[in-house]
Design goal:
This protein has four helices and 23 strands. The strands form six sheets. It has a six-stranded antiparallel beta barrel. The protein has helices at residues 2-21, 88-140, 148-205, 401-408; strands at residues 30-32, 34-50, 53-57, 64-69, 75-76, 81-85, 208-210, 215-216, 218-219, 241-242, 247-252, 257-264, 276-281, 289-296, 301-303, 310-319, 331-348, 353-355, 358-365, 368-373, 376-379, 383-386, 395-397. Helix content is 34%, strand content 33%.
Length: 409
């Protein structure tokens, strides 16, 4: 039994040594030379937006509270209700101001009645004073047949009567002026009450906001809502109090969709207005949207994510064909096509190796590979356009087979 155990150990040692010293043969990955369209692109990230976005803002009205709000992301037609406010405060104010107008009307009627009575009293006073003056003049005219003392007395009575008449007339004029002033003040008070009433009536008409255009509802964040610096503010919602002029909802026009993106500084020289773009929206799987670069900033924007800050150039591309699934705010991948070459020979970038300072490929020849220098006409991140030093269909190595054979040796 011992010799069988020794034999098994020797066989195991021999097998291990054989595995260690024998070279391992590894398959070299390959690819074929293809004739197809070559596209050179600048790749970046962007966001779908609308070129024509209409904001819906709270009216210049006090004490606004949202009682109804259209659902975020809901398609909406022109004239549909977007926001509705609680009218209770304005209705109460309208009732108070209506009462104020009626009260001022009553005050004016009362004042006119009192003025009428005062005018009648003043007229009677003036008439009586005039009568007394005429009687005094008549008595004074009897001076020739009366004693000198009586005549003098009658002349004094005439002067007194004239004074009383003048006083009565002056009182009547002063009363008229005072009455006119009272009426003017009451009319101004009424006009103010009417203006307040009309303003409140206008406030009541602002309790419902409607969409001025077709589009989709995008509810804005409420900058006065409770939140933290680490989390964005929550959107407006039913029950929120709103200040005059606050922009509550945006209604983007879905027929004018664009993609806004940024071009890295290294790619700015290759990117131009008018170039075609391909857009892949994250939320619309499998779809590719075509468009055109319509704006490219000539001025770089600094991004302070690190030091030194990054530089890039804002840009915008219009989407040629609209899709009902597109919504503003969606993230997208953008490919700006900077060069297109139809019907050219293309190989993978990793099939090219720098040997003796020249780009070289390894072409399959029998059971091995042989070197062949190539001329690179264009390249992108994944592919290379080569001249006719290669032929369509030839098999080339994706790894250097010479390095592989040296490792085996």
């Amino acid at each position: 039994m011992r010799w069988i155990f020794v034999l098994a150990v020797l066989v195991a040692i021999a097998y291990a040594g054989l595995q260690f010293w024998m070279p391992t043969t590894r398959e070299v990955p390959t690819a074929r030379v293809e004739r197809k369209e070559f596209v050179q692109t600048v790749r970046t990230r962007g966001e779908v937006k609308s070129m024509n976005t209409v904001p819906i803002a709270a009216p210049q009205t006090p004490d606004l509270q949202i009682v109804w709000l259209a659902a975020d992301g809901k398609p909406i037609k022109r004239g549909d209700v977007v926001v509705q406010f609680d009218p209770a405060a304005q209705e109460e104010r309208y009732l108070e101001e209506s009462t104020e107008v009626r009260q001022v009307d009553s005050e004016i009627v009362k004042a006119r009645a009192q003025h009428s009575i005062a005018d009648e009293l003043n007229a009677m006073l003036v008439m009586r004073s005039g009568y007394d003056l005429e009687r005094a003049k008549l008595e004074a005219s009897k001076q020739e047949i009366l004693s000198e003392i009586e005549g003098l007395k009658n002349r004094i009575v005439v002067k007194v009567s004239e004074g009383e008449l003048s006083k009565a007339q002056t009182t009547a004029r002063a009363t008229d002026i005072s009455q006119e002033s009272d009426i003017v003040q009451l009319e101004e008070k009424k006009n103010k009450a009417m203006r307040d009433l009309e303003r409140t009536k206008g406030y009541l008409g602002n309790m419902v906001l409607r969409a001025p255009v077709d589009g989709v509802v995008q509810i804005r964040p409420n900058p006065r809502a409770q939140g933290s610096s680490r989390r964005s503010r929550p959107p407006f919602q039913e029950g929120d109090s709103v200040w005059a002029g606050a922009e509550i909802v945006d209604i983007p026009d879905l027929s004018t969709m664009v993609v806004e993106f940024r071009v890295e500084e290294i790619d700015r020289g290759r990117t131009q207005m008018g170039q075609k773009v391909r857009v892949r929206v994250d939320a619309v799987a499998g779809a590719v949207f075509e468009g055109t670069v319509e704006w490219l900033s000539p001025i770089a924007t600094l991004i302070y994510r690190r030091f030194p800050p990054e530089k890039n150039f804002p840009a915008r591309a219009r989407i040629d064909k609209m899709d009902d699934r597109l919504r503003p705010g969606m993230s997208a991948s953008v490919e700006v096509i900077v060069e297109e070459r139809p019907d050219v020979l293309v190989i993978p970038s990793k099939a090219s190796f720098q040997i003796d300072g020249r780009p070289t490929v390894f072409v399959r020849s029998g059971s091995g590979f042989r070197r062949r220098a190539i001329e690179v006409l264009a390249r992108n991140a994944n592919e290379i356009v080569v001249s006719d030093t290669l032929s369509e269909g030839e098999v080339i190595a994706l790894e250097n087979p010479e390095l592989n054979s040296r490792k085996q040796g």
